[in-house]
Fold:
Amino acid sequence: MGLRKDFLWGGATAANQCEGGYNKGGRGLANVDVVPIGEDRFPIIAGKQKMFDFDDEHFYPAKEAIDMYDHYKEDIALFGEMGFKTYRLSIAWSRIFPMGDEAEPNEEGLQFYEDLFKECHKYGIEPLVTITHFDCPMHLIEKYGAWRSREMIGFYENLCNVIFRRYKGLVKYWLTFNEINMILHAPFMGAGLYFEEGENEEQAKYQAAHHELVASAIATRIAHEVDPENQVGCMLAAGHYYPYSCKPEDVFKAQEADRENYFFIDVQSRGEYPAYALKKLEREGVTIQMEDGDLELLKENTVDFISFSYYSSRVVSTDPKVNETTSGNIFASVKNPYLEVSEWGWQIDPLGLRTTMNSLYDRYQKPLFIVENGLGAIDEPDENGYVADDYRIDYLAAHLQAMKDAVELDGVDLMGYTSWGCIDLVSAGTGEMKKRYGFIYVDRDNEGNGTLARSKKKSFDWYKKVIASNGEDLSV
Ligand code: P53
Structure:
């Protein structure tokens, strides 16, 4: 028993949260560059407040981030030292196509990732590549309105054609859209959507979602054509919804809340729009414009595996008196009285991971891949940059135990586990550096001060031992 012999242990990052070098190597400007830290961040990522370029009043953490653009060799060496079998990263679209709609790609951007992938292979690390992790070239937003436009499908297809061919033999695991359901919760960050006054937001979001779903199916088709070795996954911001009580209305509301997110994966994995979604969209007056052939494309090009992020379970209630919600999370949730919360108010629920894995496996019966999980916490380094992060080890050990239970006791087929932010990076939700997830500490603060020096935390050696024992030894 136990985990697969070839279990893919590793860590995950996203280009915009770690690379920096926002204008290096011919890279173009993207939505993720212009989201600042501070109180305006949320309305901006939600598409309610317009920020299409830098201004002088704000600090934009993604511009330099942790400068992995210039440190990737050192960072990948540290991943290798921990024994990573895989490293999940994303490609910055605007490094490959700076505007997004050019005919020819930017060679310097292509070369950057080629070098990076080769560096991974030096250590026996298999890259797991997210094609878009929240990023969209600004030019595509300004000229076409981002994913609300059908033309985006063609631009994304060009990107896929280029990268699948160029990286054939170097990359075989691909994810099409990071947390595709984020389009509903943070539409500017998730899909470049900024809403004009009076626009029907639901209509725009679901139309954009349709374009992403078609683009994802096309990507899957091309990936398989270019190299039969390629395996493509979807990516869901997962987290099972619990009813606050056993009141039937609460139970039904929890099912509806789950379906709002499953909708995307139902299309990507089963290849068709689920009946409940069609009915709901019809009731809400949302009409999705489709073209001939879209439904066939979706049906014929479903994903090979189901990947997802898991940080927390969620709770819903129909009782207006139950209104205490958790803070600090894009996914609003009723507070669960049985759970502890992180310093950012995220509820900590290892068993919820097992429940979530079972729900996904029951529903799709395809291999699962946990591509994000972890604890965002404040670290206090000593003068050598060492952090005794037992709280992080506790969180991860409990989640890995729940993950193993899902595999060993429930029979879920699991390909791998990549913990989020294996090296400290910029938070997507808040733009902070202070919210750290890594095994590797990076000397940089919320204002951009610091030497960018990397140092190992206590969890570094712990995770190395976990990987060496293929998850058998979770002890400190
Ligand atoms: P941060 C919210 C809820 C679930 C997943 O989040 C989320 C978010 C965004 O805040 O996003 C994923 O950095 C995402 C990563 C992100 C990570 O969760 O806000 O894929 O880019 O960094 C953690 O703590």
User: Anything to note?
Assistant: The mean pLDDT is 97.
